[in-house]
Design brief:
Length: 179
């Protein structure tokens, strides 16, 4: 198994390998998980998704990682940092998706908080964003819990998305209040 990129009290985040395809394909085929992506992911599309993350690791040093239960090693979802182009500029974006059985346990917020802190401390970014569709309230709640605020709306992958974000300076001011 790959070494952990990040660890939290309950979770371990690591780079995905081709062996993770069964889990990724099962999760992305779940209708509630892919609801806001407005498409059913075939196994071939899930494989492309997984390989895109591996390309991100190589190119940027980060991407969506696999979130695992650190006690059991069970895969729970994907959270991580992806470079996204918005209105002609590249921004580090925190993304999160969990397989359906693992919603409502605080895992996305816990993994997202560790990713936000690593974006500032390990990768040296001065801000992070999250692109979230206006209808995706559960995802917006994760962003708000991470101290992000919603801003302008942009077109991204064919849909309107609200640009949530937080600057490093603000995250530092939050200090121990931050998740
Ligand atoms: C977006 C998504 C990851 C949010 O999942 P989530 O389970 O609501 O978020 P978290 O994992 O942070 O869990 C938070 C919830 O767990 C609850 N919770 C239960 N036990 C908890 C614990 N020990 N610690 C913290 N929170 C806990 C919180 O109260 C919160 O519930 P609330 O929002 O009703 O107040 C999930 O809906 C998803 O995967 N959706 C499909 C993919 C997607 O849309 N991704 C985002 C694209 S922008």
């Amino acid at each position: 198994m790959n070494a952990a990129v990040l660890e939290t009290s309950r979770l371990l985040l690591r780079e995905m390998t081709p062996d993770d395809l069964d889990f990724v394909a099962t999760m992305l085929a779940h209708p509630e998980v892919n609801h806001h992506y407005e498409r059913r992911f075939t196994r071939a599309e899930s494989k492309d998704w997984l390989w895109r993350q591996r390309e991100r690791y190589r190119r940027d040093g980060h991407g969506l990682w696999l979130v695992m239960d650190r006690q059991t090693g069970e895969p729970l979802g994907q959270v991580g940092l992806c470079m996204q182009e918005v209105e002609g500029a590249r921004h580090p974006e925190i993304g999160w998706l969990l397989h359906r059985p693992y919603w409502g346990k605080g895992y996305a917020t816990e993994a997202g908080g560790a990713t936000r802190d690593a974006a500032f401390e390990r990768w040296g970014y001065d801000h992070v964003i999250s692109l979230i569709r206006p209808v995706n309230v559960p995802s917006q709640r994760v962003a708000l819990r991470l101290g992000m605020t919603g801003g302008r709306t942009v077109r991204f992958h064919g849909f309107e998305h609200v640009v949530f974000g937080i600057a490093k300076e603000h995250a530092l001011q939050m200090g121990s209040e931050a998740v």
